[in-house]
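DM from R.C. (forwarded with permission)

"hey, sorry to bug you on a friday — could you get me a structure for this? deadline for the figure draft is monday and I only need the backbone to look sensible"
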Amino acid sequence: MGRAEARIESARKVVAAAADLFTRQGYAATTVPQIAAAAGVSVGTVASVGSKDALFLRVWEEASTAASLGMLAQARQASGSVTDRVWSYVGALVESSIAMPDALRDYFVAYLREREHTENQARLTEVVGAIRDLFPTDREPPNASPAMLAAWTIWLAFSSICFGLAAASIPPEEARRLMRAVVEAQCAPFED
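My reply, with the result:
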């Protein structure tokens, strides 16, 4: 195995070890030396892959993107109104966010401490594009599409509600009510 392949394999081991430890122990209880030991690499190798925050963000964002895309594929196949399809996805996101306020808080803290979010921006664009696909197609350019604007509005509202849940400033029932109102308002122009 060459140097490049060895680096790629080491990075894969680090990310896998970090994912396992963050899942089992949570963010706060996981340390870089623990990640290194679990991956069978040095602390320096872990640092070359990313900081604890960067690893946590990568693990969280990769897992949530994969889950979102799977849920959105199911929502596209569902019968019912545009509102029903969009809510089948967004409602599930709200419920999972309500169930893990501490993990949300850890995510936002790590996100705010990190400076580089290029990979997450690409993942987010993919997810919002898949939300847009729950709406009827239109002939507008993708970035000027009313459906794309609705998809971004829904995502930004959801992100804001997640901040409120993480800060314990929005009660769960209010989060559900607010997000449902946003979905209904954004979907209304697309209903038959």
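R.C.: lifesaver. The domain at 51-190 is CATH 1.10.357 (Tetracycline Repressor; domain 2).
me: no worries. The longest helix spans residues 52-77.
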